[in-house]
Design goal:
By secondary structure, the chain is α/β, with parallel strands linked by helices. The chain has a domain of 130 residues: Rossmann fold (3-Layer(aba) Sandwich). The protein contains seven helices and nine strands, in the order βαβββαββαβαβααβα. It has a five-stranded parallel sheet with strand order 2-7-1-8-9, sandwiched between helices. A four-stranded mixed sheet has the order 4-3-6-5. A hairpin with a 2-residue loop joins strand 5 and strand 6. The longest helix is centred in the C-terminal third of the chain and has 16 residues. The radius of gyration is 16 Å and the shape is globular. The termini are close together. 32% of the residues are buried.
Length: 196
């Protein structure tokens, strides 16, 4: 049975970097579950690799057809996990890694608990910023959000932090190396309890 590992937390806390490093180090045994979004790709992102980038109409049609396990609207863009993606045989031999928000994590756990083949496979890590000021600095350094968007993200971050108790592990973010070292340690310990 493979592990479904979720890395969650506020915007700009380093989730994508952590996921990328896990895949780089353990690509033979772990793979990213690709989620769908209506947001525009960032410069380095590729369709079908980082996300399935869908037009609003495509996303709405899939929603109408009940294709999503969960979906959320975040900062004006929709994000969701397609049921077929999670249930496909492409992931049988590998652990599955997801980078999703707090609400998406709750929906994923609920779906997996109701599905006998997925029950008890989900483990969750919440990456918590040291402070809201530190998070503000990280978002500004990305340079992709306006001041208004930054304030919206910070308000959302405060709400997300209130739900940290819903997670199996909470990691207070320090720096990239320390954060990755902790996530790697958690993954290796969990991996030993989930045999393929």
């Amino acid at each position: 049975m493979s592990l479904i590992l979720v890395i969650s937390g506020p915007a700009a806390v380093g989730k994508t970097t952590l996921c990328d490093r896990l895949i780089s180090d353990f690509g033979g045994s772990v793979c990213r579950l690709i989620t769908a979004t209506t947001r525009m790709p960032r410069t380095s992102e590729k369709n079908g690799v980082d996300y399935y980038f869908l037009k609003e109409a495509e996303f709405s049609e899939k929603l109408h057809q009940n294709c999503f396990l969960e979906y959320e609207e975040i900062h004006g863009n929709k994000y969701g996990i397609l049921k077929d993606t999670l249930l496909s045989n492409n992931y049988e031999e590998k652990d599955i890694l997801l980078n999703i928000d707090v609400n998406g994590t709750a929906s994923l756990k609920q779906f997996c608990d109701a599905n006998p083949s997925l029950k008890d496979r989900v483990k969750t890590i919440f990456i918590k910023p040291k402070s809201i000021d530190e998070l503000r600095k990280r978002i500004r350094e990305r340079g992709s959000e306006s001041d208004q968007q930054i304030e919206i993200r910070l308000a959302n971050a405060k709400k997300e932090i209130l739900r940290e108790e819903d997670f199996d592990f909470v990691l207070v973010s320090s720096d990239r190396e320390s954060d990755y070292s902790e996530v790697k340690k958690i993954y290796l310990n969990l991996k030993n309890t989930f045999k393929h």
